[in-house]
Amino acid sequence: MNKQVLISVSDKTGIVDFARGLAALNYDIISTGGTLRTLKEAGVAVKAVEDVTGFPEMLDGRVKTLHPIIHAGLLAKRDDDRHRQQMLDKSINPIDIVVVNLYPFKQTFDQSSVTKAEVIENIDIGGPAMLRAAAKSFRYVSAVVDPDDYKDVLQAIQHDKLDTPMRKQLAAKVFRHTAQYDTLIAGYFTDEAFPENFTVTYEKVQTLRYGENPHQQAAFYKKPYEQGMSLASGRQLHGKELSYNNIQDANAALEIIAEYAKPAAVAVKHMNPCGIGVSEDVNTAFSKAYRADPVSIFGGIVACNRPIDVDTAEQLSSIFLEIIIAPGFTDEGFTILTKKKNIRLLEVKMDEAKSADHQLTTVKGGVLIQGNGPKELNHDDLIFPTETKPTEADMTDLWFAWKTVKHVKSNAIVLAKDQETIGIGAGQMNRIGAAKISLEQAGDKAEGAVLASDAFFPMPDTAEEAAKAGIKAIIQPGGSKRDQDSIDVCNQYGIAMVMTGTRHFKH
Ligand SMILES: NC(=O)c1ncn([C@@H]2O[C@H](COP(=O)(O)O)[C@@H](O)[C@H]2O)c1NC=O
């Protein structure tokens, strides 16, 4: 008796050639409605599932292959006498290969004009049941879920290499696939932020040469069907492969640049911004970001939220950068930058929408999960506790500094003037330390600048240092028991203070 293959696929890519190959290797093909038609039209000899089961497809395709004759054919242990006898008693033939890919649930769900009923109908039941049965029976049955495997499977059969280890690999792929499929369905059924168990699913983009350090292995994964403003959905146009650290830094640059609607440029080093500029055009924005810290930008990453024009490309090409990220490059700009062999150019669609992703941090034996963040603040959320109030121009810089300080590692202080960072104190174990670093970096430029702090002032010392340097306005969350001490200092020196009521720790 010939071996049997059951083929039931939604994505019909490559299926005709695969089926022809299997037929040529003397496999009898059984198939479901649409797949059967495709194969018949291509002249492949094929039998309908209902001719095997004696039971028609019913309920609009909700029941096609869910039948004991199919599932016994997949689940019987071929080396078990009792199983063999039961199969003989019921005249059931074993199925040797299952080729199934599932209803396109996520693709249907992502369509803009789709009804809830259509989404539900695209939850595949019979397909996963067959795949899982075949995968459980990997000692006897091959479960093929990925069209990319058709060629290898055919070759393996031809060379008598479709053995248990290979079937086990195919089975593992099946269980990963059905787990991902169910995770996406569960995500559709509830938007509960913290369910009783938290299942995530990602798809591999690439294996990386190494992780944060050369002795660490690493890979980059993306959300299935990712289309937002992210590295995963961006395109690398030029340069060497991204490293683990490149991806982390580039992602930090993207998170920051998403804050600004006007033309902006951000330079990032070790996941902290070292210079940010906002202006009327990208070229001036980059000049500001560069001037903010011409030392730290060396070997850094630059992201701009406007296409890179020729002038900006000239400026960028005069310094050593690892990566430039932008929504596009003009032809001339691209020509200039690609003269540098090693620079990586990434094209990423820019939008201001903040991602709703959870943030996951592994801890020993578990994971911490948090939502992505507070509401956008507006003027009505602010408190102005000092005698001096900020001017409109001060407010522009205060907002700029506030948006920036959110992305600096805590304890963080940012000084800004004319929408340009002039001093950034990052990752210090005490707030006054971060303030001193930022003020030292700003030097004389601190006179007339604004200061943002990611968390409240536990003491008046930061306000005192700011006053000494000539800072004219401060934005900070407020909420310290000793807020009044800092307010008193500001009143003494005519500094305007703004309280946001929102803290922005970033550890
Ligand atoms: N209900 C069933 O018994 C069943 N058996 C197989 N399917 C799916 O039907 C699809 C193929 O359908 P067709 O050959 O009619 O185009 C495959 O994605 C397969 O996973 C089923 N459909 C959904 O559950």
From TrEMBL:
Descriptive protein name: Bifunctional purine biosynthesis protein PurH
EC number: 2.1.2.3, 3.5.4.10
MF (Gene Ontology): IMP cyclohydrolase activity; phosphoribosylaminoimidazolecarboxamide formyltransferase activity
Species whose genome carries this gene: Lentibacillus salinarum
Family: Belongs to the PurH family.
Annotated catalysed reactions: IMP + H2O = 5-formamido-1-(5-phospho-D-ribosyl)imidazole-4-carboxamide; (6R)-10-formyltetrahydrofolate + 5-amino-1-(5-phospho-beta-D-ribosyl)imidazole-4-carboxamide = 5-formamido-1-(5-phospho-D-ribosyl)imidazole-4-carboxamide + (6S)-5,6,7,8-tetrahydrofolate
Record flagged with keyword Transmembrane helix: no
High-level lineage: Bacteria, Bacillati, Bacillota, Bacilli, Bacillales
Annotated pathway: Purine metabolism; IMP biosynthesis via de novo pathway; 5-formamido-1-(5-phospho-D-ribosyl)imidazole-4-carboxamide from 5-amino-1-(5-phospho-D-ribosyl)imidazole-4-carboxamide (10-formyl THF route): step 1/1; Purine metabolism; IMP biosynthesis via de novo pathway; IMP from 5-formamido-1-(5-phospho-D-ribosyl)imidazole-4-carboxamide: step 1/1
